[in-house]
Design goal:
The protein has 11 helices and 18 strands. The chain is α/β, with parallel strands linked by helices and about 400 residues long. It has 2 domains: about 240 residues, Alpha-Beta Complex (Spore Coat Polysaccharide Biosynthesis Protein SpsA, Chain A); about 160 residues, 60s Ribosomal Protein L30, Chain: A, CATH 3.30.1330. A 7-stranded mixed beta sheet has the order 5-4-1-6-10-7-11, with helices on both faces. It has a 5-stranded mixed beta sheet with strand order 15-12-18-16-17. A two-stranded antiparallel sheet has the order 2-3. Strand 8 and strand 9 form a beta hairpin. Helix 5 crosses helix 6 and helix 7 packs parallel to helix 9.
């Protein structure tokens, strides 16, 4: 079972870099900003601006405590209108950006709260970021002090001379396309920023380079390749990407018999129950088994028994969290699905689960690497009917939604 860490005690400020001139979009002469391009969402055909879509994700992310926006001065009023319309409560300040990214971020850092532990720098025009990917990078930064979102290069990369003649081929196994958020311990980042200023280094294109210049290692966390930055007009094709998303649903069901001298484990959390728990080849976590089957069902990959047969000794008394982690990584990394949400129902007469549902959600969130807000846990009795009503066993249902672009 998972031991909950103290990561929830860290305070994080997100700096949204939105002060660019949009010159590569062709807006530099018109005065327009790509931050205000409208994007269709998949909810009732509503539209959101780029900056609005970005701010929404960071507002919803539970680890983010405050947001500071670095914008063009002429965009400030319109951004305030967006903040007020959406009732964003985490936005602490909007500051005018500088001539370079380095200057803009340095000005934003001056406004970061004294109680902040980590700074997450994100491109305002990278509006397809997910809560899940933000949290993945945050957790790695909490562990190492410095982490960034990124994705492995899949194209073959060539070196060329001034006449565009190929001169060599790069080893793409060593190459990543680095994205944002880029997240660092506050003191580490401020010291690195000051060193760049002292060294008169201004041609910085990302914040990792600031920290790299100080000699600190930055860890890359693999995130979605669709976390693109809207830079030029070709990127506009992604603005309506929701219509290209493929959704798949899955349902999982499991049941285990109750017995004396067993621990009752549900969702990886041990539930006090007078030394009465579930019987099974593994730890008999009926809830996690249902979740696994729902994930496998949605992906069209069979069921839990095909992956973890109950006649193999290596699975005897194994923690079901280990099994769930394997399936989660298979679904998300090997098959490139995103887990949109999971809704679970545990059917039992007793014990009552109301005091444990939050811990179960938190634990499953950690194993699956998805936000707690995307997991729901319900508990129901069957009014003393059937095997759950007479306390012979416990059943669980899980429904999940997977998405793939």
């Amino acid at each position: 079972m998972r031991t909950l860490n103290n990561y929830n005690n860290y305070k994080v400020c997100a700096i949204i870099a939105a002060a660019g001139k949009s010159s590569r979009m062709g807006f530099d002469d018109s005065g327009q900003s790509k931050q205000f391009i409208e994007i269709e969402t998949n909810q009732n055909n509503n539209k959101k601006t780029v900056i609005e879509k970005t701010l929404t994700v960071f507002e919803l992310c539970g680890y983010i405590n405050e947001i500071i926006i670095a914008s063009r001065p002429e965009d400030t009023e319109k951004i305030r209108e967006i903040i007020n319309k959406n009732k964003f409560k985490k936005v602490k300040n909007i500051i005018p950006g500088g001539e370079t990214r380095l200057e803009s971020v340095a000005k934003a850092v001056e406004k970061v709260g004294e109680d902040i532990d980590f700074i997450a720098v994100h491109d305002g025009a990278r509006c397809f970021i997910s809560e899940q990917d933000i949290e993945k990078v945050l957790l790695k930064a909490f562990e190492t002090g410095a982490a960034t979102a990124g994705t492995k290069i899949t194209d073959t990369i060539k070196f060329a001379d001034s006449r565009n003649n190929i001169t060599g081929t790069a080893d793409r196994n060593l190459l990543y396309s680095v994205q944002t958020p880029q997240i660092f311990g506050k003191n580490l980042y401020i010291n690195a920023l000051n060193k760049c200023i002292e060294d008169n280094i201004s041609n910085i294109t990302d914040d990792c380079a600031i920290v790299e210049n100080s000699g600190h290692i930055v860890n890359i966390v693999e995130t979605s390749r669709y976390n693109i930055k809207i830079t030029d007009r070709q990127d506009l094709e992604f603005l309506n990407q929701d219509k290209y998303i493929k959704y798949r649903t899955g349902h999982g069901y499991d049941v285990h018999r109750l017995s004396e001298n067993r621990k009752l484990i549900l969702g990886g959390i041990e539930i006090p129950n007078n030394n009465i728990g579930l019987i099974g080849h593994s730890d008999a976590d009926v809830l996690i088994h249902a979740v696994i089957d729902s994930l496998l069902g949605a992906a069209g990959l069979g069921d839990i028994g095909e992956f973890f047969p109950d006649n193999l000794d290596k699975y005897k008394n194994i923690s079901s969290e280990v099994l769930l982690k394997q399936i989660s990584e298979l679904i998300q990394k090997d098959y490139n699905y995103t887990i949109s949400n999971i809704d679970c129902t545990v059917v039992l007469q007793e014990p009552k689960l109301s005091d444990y549902k939050a811990a179960i959600r938190r634990n499953l969130s950690g194993v699956l690497k998805i936000p707690e807000s995307d997991i729901n846990i319900k508990a129901k009795t069957e009014e003393r009917l059937g095997f759950t009503g007479n306390k012979t066993g416990i059943a669980a249902h899980s429904v999940c939604l997977l998405a793939k672009i």
